[in-house]
Amino acid sequence: MAQDAQPLLAIAQATRQAAQTLAGLSADAKNRAIEAVAAALEAHADEIVAANQADCEAAIADHLAKPLYGRLKLDGVKLAGAIAGVRDVARLPDPVGTVQIHRELDDGLVLKRVAVPLGVLGVIFESRPDAVMQIAALAIKSGNGVILKGGREAVGSCTALVQAIKQGLRKAGIDPAAVQLLTTREETRALLDLEGYVDLIIPRGSNAFVRFVQENTRIPVLGHADGICHLYVDSEADLEQAIAIALDAKTAYPSACNAIETLLIHRDMAVVGLPALAEALHQARVELRGDETACQIVPYLVPTTEEDWATEYSDLILSIKVVDSVDEAIAHISTYGSRHTEAIATRNPVTAAQFMDRVDAAGVFHNCSTRFADGFRYGFGAEVGISTQKMPPRGPVGLEGLVTYKYRLVGDGHISAPYSGSEARPFTHRDLPL
Amino acid sequence: MAQDAQPLLAIAQATRQAAQTLAGLSADAKNRAIEAVAAALEAHADEIVAANQADCEAAIADHLAKPLYGRLKLDGVKLAGAIAGVRDVARLPDPVGTVQIHRELDDGLVLKRVAVPLGVLGVIFESRPDAVMQIAALAIKSGNGVILKGGREAVGSCTALVQAIKQGLRKAGIDPAAVQLLTTREETRALLDLEGYVDLIIPRGSNAFVRFVQENTRIPVLGHADGICHLYVDSEADLEQAIAIALDAKTAYPSACNAIETLLIHRDMAVVGLPALAEALHQARVELRGDETACQIVPYLVPTTEEDWATEYSDLILSIKVVDSVDEAIAHISTYGSRHTEAIATRNPVTAAQFMDRVDAAGVFHNCSTRFADGFRYGFGAEVGISTQKMPPRGPVGLEGLVTYKYRLVGDGHISAPYSGSEARPFTHRDLPL
Fold it and tell me: What interface predicted TM-score (ipTM) does this complex get?
């Protein structure tokens, strides 16, 4: 651990201790705590909005970039929406205590694998003070303590929010140290060094920021940097569907990680369909870039460079590449995709199966928009992050990403020796009702 | 990626490509491949044993340490046992293809979460050439390619084994590049740098070796360094049971990670029970070390130093500490335990629940030996490693540790726009049969 981490250590230990109590609470008790937090936020709405107003004014004086400013702003309406979101979390099923394995190993020797909280979460986010409320609610629901680090520009807002949250916790009889706020940049580095004290880091911000976090901590990180998703329009695609999907996947929310950046199109389909496809996207004010073949078919495309294929535009820009086969599409995705979500439009079930089996990504979609890759849309009730790592949890992660499990084995003096050697007693390994 | 990794890259890519085919095989086809591997190993038994003989002779000439030599040796009997182990893997349930979530998001828009292979495993082990066979079988069963790196002293044995395995794969019509062998130390470092090409590293060897691997790669590592497990004998323990458990947990296999290193005993029980407990362990030739109180009760104990509590002896040595409460026992475990397996002996269910709820470890055991912490004993059929990390997979990990999952979403032209905004179409989120 770096030296910087020392002052933070006391905070982390206090959070861990508070989290131990949270971990033992019933679902009802946790839901009451969440309701108390929601009520406290309502009671302090004026102060929170005023603190945010001050942050916003300072941001204007500091010439904060416009999109950041938009995310910073928290007016009464947005606050009320976020508080409703807190109450939604109370209605989610409790992820803790679920019995995943229940097995008799032998007479009177019974194993259970039970879901338990991770312990302490470290959540680092840029701007967006409303994230504080959602994260605190999810942490309480999953029985975890949480150390929050907001952006410098939102310090006043975050402080007001966390004060209210702590007051709610206190009212519910819960140690307010369960939710902590850090405010300085130095503390971010120190937080990343707290291996063994913080169990999971969730970064929320730009790709560069997430990459920085991933590269500077040995604590597991839930999240993803780039989101370079593709739509492959096959020779046997329904062109009308493909156009609708491309439009939705590019324009519904261009800065989302599940928006597409590149459209791959089979040569046969390109010849007959690319003009209409390009026209529809052009009408929707998408800047279109194309490889040589695409530019030959649709002359108003801007020629792509190698860099285009590896870029997440996060904007109304789409690069188009003409391919000769589903294999070439898969190879392109394998080289440039970020293992997030990849879609194919085709009427041919064999081609679809090839694509979905062989593309290595958290999500593989057939005849639908990549925009569905989302925890809420998948029915998880909440989304704590989207992971593009290979190991689970992968893809959109709900509350189950904030819990782990432990094995509980109960015997009556059972020892291992009789189960070893040439006359070994066999295990029964009989599964019991969950 | 480091420069060293360049030559290895071609190997990793060949393995990844071979793995893609493996990933698509049916359970039957994979089992046939495993049988072909077992048959090929049998057919080449003489060459394998001879190659091992040569390795062993070189090891004697090199003055290889005796325990390492014991693990290196692979005679006909040990080989036959290992081949039987390969066939056992064929009988395990296929971990690939399991549908974990099956959900209608809306009419005609259906989500499935399906278990898929990780891709390419990197397995690095010291000595023990028999590990090659088990690992290759587990890799094939789980649809993964595997790059093996054995110890220098076992190069001849490993080469003979992998040649036979590749021949078996070829006979079954599978690209032999699915199983690769590296032989130089430089390649170990290069392997650890292959992030993006190797999906999971499994180190098998000493604690120091595992720690080295964990600290020198950004690829996920399945394994654990230290195994410092405790048995806490409560004031309300059944002394006879506690003695039997302590004996088993310490002496059945002292170098195992699930053996205990420290016995914690409640003061009240120590006064009446420690002499008998110590006598039983002493009779079993366990070297006993004790804190001040323990030494007062049992004078022949060697006084402990601070270092004892943090040491995995991997030998017939046990440190004993007298505590005043279950809280003190939990606090000691929290400071010195390695989150592997922790046991309590007590007849008091409330105390047991406190211990099991509050101790943070992969396994928490009540009135039974820590030695049960094992994939085979848990009924997983195989164990690919034991993880002491907080995030799943945690504890003993079976074949499920070698697979991940992907989300497959199938629609009929579904786009996200209708599900957004003030008149958003609701999702049905209806779970379908698995």
Answer: 0.94
